[in-house]
Design a protein that fits this description.
Radius of gyration: 27 Å
Structural class: mainly alpha
Distance between the termini: 98 Å
Order of helices and strands: EEHHHH
Strand content: under 5%
């Protein structure tokens, strides 16, 4: 008999899983189980679609994604914010151009 490293209860020497706490004693088996049970519902295609639709409002989807490294998260955040700012400036400039066109039409 040996003690479980997680709950300190007595278990058999050949045990693979503790009958008291339910933890797997083999590190490889535990890692495989957590990978199977760990789910991430936002795939890359969904995140790209969300960024294209709502811009910086989709940044939490990138930051919550556990498979993306910190460097990529920072880089993508900077790129998305810069592109959003440029598109905002372009929108303001086009609105000003439209106002000028309407003013010219009113003078005719």
């Amino acid at each position: 008999m040996k003690k479980c490293p997680f709950c300190a209860e007595e278990i058999q020497d050949e045990a693979i899983k503790c009958k008291h706490c339910g933890e797997f004693l083999d590190e490889a088996e535990r890692a495989a189980r957590t990978q199977k049970t760990a789910r991430w519902y936002f795939r890359k295609s969904f995140i790209v679609f969300a960024v294209c639709c709502v811009g910086p409002l989709a940044l939490p989807l990138i930051w919550w994604r556990p498979q993306t490294t910190r460097g990529w998260k920072i880089g993508l955040t900077v790129v998305i914010l810069v592109l959003s700012w440029l598109s905002f400036e372009a929108t303001l400039k086009s609105l000003e151009t439209l106002r000028e066109c309407y003013r010219l039409l009113d003078t005719l």
